[in-house]
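Lab notes, practical 5.
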Amino acid sequence: MIRRFCLYGFLKNQKYYEPFLIIAFISYGMNFALIGMLIAFREIWVNLLEIPSGAVADVFGRRKSMIVSFLAYIVFLIIMACGQQIWLLFTAMFFYAIGDAFRTGTHKAIIFSWLEHEGRSDEKTEIYGLTRSWSKLGSAVSIPIAVAVLFFSAPNNYSMIFLLCIVPYLINIVNFMKYPAYLDGASRQERSLVEVAKVTWRTLKYIVTFVPLRRLLIHAMSFEGLFKVSQSYLQPLIKFMVLGVPVLLYWNDQQRTAVMVGLVYFVLYLSSSFASRRAGKFVQILGGGVATAKRLWTLYVMSFMLIVFGVIIGYNSIVIVAFIILAIVQNLWRPMLVSRCAEVSDPKELATVLSVESQLKAVFTAIVAPLLGFWVDSLAKTVPQWRFIPVGVVGLILSLIMLLWLSLNTYKQRG
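Output from the prediction step:
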């Protein structure tokens, strides 16, 4: 089964469009504020669908939930390939939100159910880190394919990198059908919307009243949300750097951008894969979850400081290195977070708990993304060379707040 879990992650991350999505939006004539609103729209719908979708997975079956998710992703891909009109982009984001809502947390719950069934529950961080590393390896493999497709495509034509993703997604649906039936996790006799509502309410009540899980999810919201929002600016940063430097002039702008974005993301994904595979050992070496969280928040602070410094002195290469460090740190954080959620949650309702975690991240992204976009657009008009400084400033402030809060909680517990 571990091979099937790894195959799922590898195929899921054949997102040939992902390193170029924001660049595609810019080529459609969108500014950062509008891009932020598009992202917010997607996250709001993820937010609305997240908790009930997790409960649906826990009640009706997790394999069915995963199949629905990937069918929604395929609709998203078809719409994105069809046109550039704003209303089509918002429609596509709605289907992407359905896909995310039915997927997020569900497959992790499947993995942990299998580990419990096999008597290997103490390997949560290691196994999840292994499967996540295959996801990132899949992302790295997707890069040369995406670059080759874009290199030979007409300028501003991104349709093929969306349509090409449909093939691995269909293969993944077949992969889900081969999962054992007991991994559905639907042991309840009553399978109805009433039962879904009961599971949702019971899980929310548990999260609110159980302090360790509540704190963990607040940290997850901030950590994951910061990464998600900030990474949106890596693509345009590379594009502006490429267009501002006289290199590879025998290629057109799209070809130059595709090659440079591909190189940066290939390094980023390989580094992330390496980090995920070693997340379990990393936690053991540092002495547990809380100690690891402190060090990872500290690395976040340093990375955002590096972004601010790089923007101020005008060295975009420094900013790009900082983004890569953020990705490595996030891939050390994620396996630790998921395993800690599994430790303090009812296994039967783990998909719902992880859906709440993803929902909180969606709320954070929906609020911060448009505001950050407006700030970046404002600076682009007044101080264009500093347009990306808000990314570093917002990340630095929030990271410092969360690190301080974690340190204070640790101090109180010791006292």
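Observations recorded by the TA: The CA atoms of residues 64 and 89 lie 27 Å apart. The radius of gyration is 21 Å.
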